[in-house]
Write a structure and sequence with these properties.
Blueprint (H helix, E strand, L loop, with lengths): L23 E2 L21 H9 L2 H14 L5 E9 L5 E6 L7 H11 L16 E9 L4
Antiparallel strand pairs: 1-3, 2-3, 2-4
Helix pairs in contact: 2-3
């Protein structure tokens, strides 16, 4: 797959940070097995829907980060997760979509939290294709 596009908000120093794109937690998505033929205009879901669900897991994401801070007190960076919603509203697989936070244990923990998200069920097919979400999270030590 092609690398993710550059972050327009990244500082010049960010370009030299390593990424771990391609790391995944969970089995391949069932929805990835299905393809919709042709083009369809439908199923727009506003970003606020996903933001609300992800923010509800704030404490779990923070627990991943707090554990990582015990290993590396100066740890900071961004984790970008990509996940596909299944028809039943579950997330069975979350993958790294170009993170720069250099802690594989924390990355795996955060991706596992993404697999605990649940959304409203929907039908993949005519007219709606599978929903893939890219979601970035930024982490920095509290002052």
């Amino acid at each position: 797959p092609a690398p993710p596009p550059p972050d327009p908000h990244a500082s010049p120093d960010d370009k030299d940070r390593p990424t771990t794109a391609g790391t995944c937690v969970g089995p391949p998505s069932r929805a990835a097995q299905k393809r919709v033929q042709g083009e369809a205009m439908c199923c727009y879901t506003p970003p606020s829907y996903f933001i609300t669900r992800v923010r509800a897991k704030h404490d779990a994401f923070r627990a991943c980060y707090n554990a990582a801070l015990q290993r590396r007190p100066d740890l900071r960076g961004r984790i970008a997760a990509r996940f596909v919603l299944e028809e039943d509203g579950t997330v069975t697989r979350a993958c790294d979509a170009g993170s720069d936070l250099d802690d594989p244990e924390m990355l795996a923990c955060v991706l596992r939290v993404f697999t605990t998200l649940t959304f409203d069920p929907y039908v993949i097919g005519d007219p709606c294709p599978a929903v893939t979400v890219n979601y970035p999270l930024a982490f920095s030590p509290e002052p």
